[in-house]
Amino acid sequence: MRRWSTWPRAAAGAASSALAAAVFAFLDVLDVALCLVYALVDGILEESPARCYCHIRSPPDDDEEVSDTLYARRSAVRDALLGLVRVATKTRTHRHRAPPEKPRWSDCGCKSCVAWRSGAGRLHVVAKEPDKPNKGTESDETATAENNAAAIFVHGFTSSSSLWAETVFRESSVLSNTKLFAVDLLGFGQSPKPADCLYRLRDHVEAIETSLIEHNNLSSFHLVAHSMGCIIALALAAKHPHWVKSITLVAPPYFLACEQSASQVALSRLAEKKLWPPLLFGSAVMSWYEHVGRTVCLLLCKNHRLWEWLYTLLTRKRDVDFRVRDLTKHTHHSGWHTMHNVICGGARLQDRHLEAVQAAGIPVMLVHGVDDPVVPVECSSRHLKAKLPRAELRLMPACDHATVLLGRERGFAEDLAAFWSSSGSHRDYAARQRVNGGC
């Protein structure tokens, strides 16, 4: 009787798997067809068109920060079709080319999207000055020390500095003694989006160093990051552990894997080829299919003013929600390379960065939503906590990848204030332990 009661579930699972296989096989065919279409149009409209990764089988140089997922996202259908395409189109591969003087034909060229070209090439940074202390409530020396504190906030893949400026920064009364900096990562928001950049992990770190840390003469700061930003924050902390006072990681992506296959594991876990839920299906399409993803960006990003106008028309609001606006503020080139070279490629480097943070005794707080469908909660609760045994773990019930921040801004700001207040004594204790030869 039990056997008969389980067959509907097994049949439904088999039907779902068969449907998913059919859909992704169709996308394999569509991606190869679009490869030919874009090659033709790029050749007509661009002086020096960049070759796609369909025609490059291995990295151009020995760079561990260039992810192998750029070249090894293969399937039987795709391999067979690409073999025919390579035979039919034996053209030269442009691996190195001068950056174009104007946006690509498939990118938006409106004023807000290309404003960075007339600037100094620095990342866009939003700063929130600390509130001035009330006179007579504390000594001038203490007030100066507190107001010299700084914190850098790093956003995730579908966000920009608005994620922090529109939420946590509005709780300035809680974080009144700290200067807050939110940065648009390279290729996102209002920051530069160079077409000749591979958007490796070190490219993002170096951009933050020159545009924010050096430009503002920061000698010490707290780090706060969400999702993909956690990978960049850990790389920055591992490079400059003496600058970092504490690290807060919100919904950090981390998967156990040997260093050689970490990139492939990250791709398969974060962009698994499934039809449901829709967010996972969208991640799979944008991560596995270079030309389908470019088509989505052509429709959404190039025409973002149309979609923003429709949003204001339908919602009857004067301002576009920052979550809607941020989705379109990048190019396909920047988004594609950041996805693979930071999220997937950075997975190979994450263990050594965690080891450096642990060795430096930097206080770490992990915040994760229990109902997170994008990055499973075991990333923090088990895997990452094992790498950082001294880290403080906070699991937020009934919260997902976004609502772990959105909707609980006040509570998150209060948690930050308390953690920052205690992190100084923790760091001093860890330093004394290292000097004395302790653990």
First-to-last CA distance: 58 Å
Query: What is the SS-derived class?
Result: alpha/beta
Task: Tell me the series of helices and strands, N- to C-terminal.
Answer: HHHEHEHEHEHEHHHHHHHEHEH
Q: What profile does the largest beta sheet have?
A: 7 strands, mixed
Sequence of strands across the biggest β-sheet = 1-3-2-4-5-6-7
Outline the structure in words:
With 439 residues, this protein is an alpha/beta fold. 47% of the residues lie in helices and 9% in strands. The chain contains 16 helices and 7 strands. It has helices at 2-45, 76-88, 111-114, 140-147, 162-165, 201-213, 228-239, 262-270, 278-288, 290-300, 304-315, 322-326, 332-344, 350-360, 378-387, 409-435; strands spanning 125-128, 149-154, 178-183, 221-226, 244-250, 364-369, 392-396. The protein has a 7-stranded mixed β-sheet with strand order 1-3-2-4-5-6-7, with helices on both faces. β4, α7 (228-239) and β5 form a beta-alpha-beta unit. α6 (201-213) crosses α7 (228-239), α7 (228-239) crosses α14 and α9 (278-288) crosses α10 (290-300). The longest helix has 44 residues, at 2-45. The chain is globular, with a radius of gyration of 23 Å. It holds the Pfam family Abhydrolase_1. InterPro entries: AB_hydrolase_1, AB_hydrolase_fold. This is AB hydrolase-1 domain-containing protein. It comes from Urochloa decumbens. Residues 152-405 form the AB hydrolase-1 domain.
